[in-house]
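tool_call: predict_structure(chain=1)
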Amino acid sequence: MRLVVTDSGLGGLSVCADLLKAPTGPTAKNTELLYVNAAPDPQHSYNSMESLAEKQEVFQTFLGRLADSYQPDHIFVACHTLSALLSEIKLPKLPIQGMLELTRKAILEETKEFGYSRLLILATPTTIYSGVYDRLLPDTQSIACPGLADMISSDLTGTRIIENIRLFLSGANPPLSPGKVIVVLGCTHYGWRENLFLEALDNIGIEPSLINPNKIAAQQLVKQWSLDEAIRFVGAYSTPMEERKTMMHLLEDVGAFPLITALNQEEVFSFFKK
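tool_result:
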C-alpha cells in the first residue's frame, strides 16, 4: 500500500511529522509514505501564479502524472490552496482527500463545544480569496498573509516570521478586538510555527481557541494507515539549501528523524515536463 501526502512546498511535512507520532488505529493498513512536493519549481509556487486557470491546469497535470508514475492507493492534499482546486479539476480515479472538509468540521465542532461566535482565518491570499471558509460563522474575519508560507520555510530563527504575523494582525480591517476567538491556521506551513501565532495573538489580547488542521489531518489519516519504515520524498526539483536547512531544524525539533532521512535522500521526478 502507498499513501501520498502532497503540498505546494514543504508545509505538509508538518502533517507527516504529526502522523509519525499519532497512535495507529486498530484497522489501519500497513503502508509506505510518499511525500511529494507539488510545486513546479522554487520560484513558481501556486500562490505566485497569475490566474486560477493556471493553478488548475498545473495541479491537474501534476496529479495525473503522480497517479500514473507512482500508483498511490490514497492521496492526501495537505494544502488549503490546492484542496480548494480539487472540485474544479479532473481527478485521477483513486481516493483523494483534502484539508477543507476536515477544517470546516473542526470549526463547527469547536463552536458547538465552546460557544464561540467569532472566527478568524489566517491563510495565504489564494485561500482567503477563494472564500472556502467564508460564512461558517456570522462573525468571520479573514486575514491574507502574503509571503508568510515561504518565510516559514526559510527563516530559521523565526524573528522575521513573528514580525510579519504582528504586521498582518495589526493591519486587519476592521481592526481586531480583544476577546475569545476561534483562530484557524489555514496554511499547512503555519502549523510549524504555531507558538509564534499564539504569542502574536496574545500580544493584542486575543484569547484563541486555536485550530491547527495539520494535527487533525494526521489524526484522521492514522485511523486508516500505519506507516512502515519506508518513507520517501519526491519533488520536481532539488530542495534549495536554505529551505532544506530550516526544514531539517523543524523536523529535528519534533523528533521526525525518518522524514529527515527521506529529505536527505530526496528523489527528483519530472512531473511537469511535456
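agent: The chain has a mean pLDDT of 92. Proceeding to next step.
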